[in-house]
From TrEMBL:
It comes from the Bacteria. The gene is mraZ. GO terms for biological process: negative regulation of DNA-templated transcription initiation. It holds the Pfam family MraZ. Belongs to the MraZ family. One of its GO terms (cellular component) is cytoplasm. GO terms for molecular function: DNA-binding transcription factor activity; transcription cis-regulatory region binding. Forms oligomers. SUPFAM superfamilies: AbrB/MazE/MraZ-like. This is Transcriptional regulator MraZ.
Length: 145
């Protein structure tokens, strides 16, 4: 099982390539899938995790309009990326535009995948989330126990 943890700040280069933290590179497969994700970020999955996610999505009832919209968004906004020899991935222009990226990014471990955030958006989200962290923990305790 892959486990992505930590927070790293990097910048996109002139060609929209992002350096992937060295700690993550050893866990990645040759194919990496990057898609628009929840809360205004991108999510990057190694091939096996991506295939497992798609399998779960395929098991949802397609007669439900919300399911169709969600599946369409996750898979339609996905792109296959690969690490170059310097440990970078090329992020598609449409993903960067749609999520409001500039140059500064934050790469955040999220268990079986990692997220790529525009730095400004991540800092705003972290402040709001940090203020509610204890409330979230109390609400989630029932699910965890």
């Amino acid at each position: 099982m892959r486990l992505f943890t930590g927070e790293y700040r990097h910048h996109l280069d002139a060609k929209n390539r992002l350096m992937i933290p060295a700690k993550y590179r050893d866990q990645l497969t040759p194919k990496i899938y990057v898609t628009e994700w929840l809360d205004g970020c991108l999510a990057a999955f190694a091939q096996e995790e991506w295939e497992a996610l798609v399998e779960k999505l395929n098991g949802l009832p397609i007669t439900n309009a919300k399911v169709r919209a969600f599946v369409r968004r996750i898979t339609g906004k996905a792109d296959e990326c690969a690490l170059d020899s310097q440990g970078r991935i090329l992020l598609p222009q449409f993903q960067l535009r749609d999520e409001g990226f500039e140059k500064a990014c934050v790469v955040v471990g999220a268990s079986n995948h990692f997220e790529i955030w525009p730095e400004k958006k991540y800092d705003e989200y972290s402040q709001i989330g940090g203020d509610n962290f204890e409330n979230f923990a109390e609400d989630l305790t029932e699910m965890l126990l």
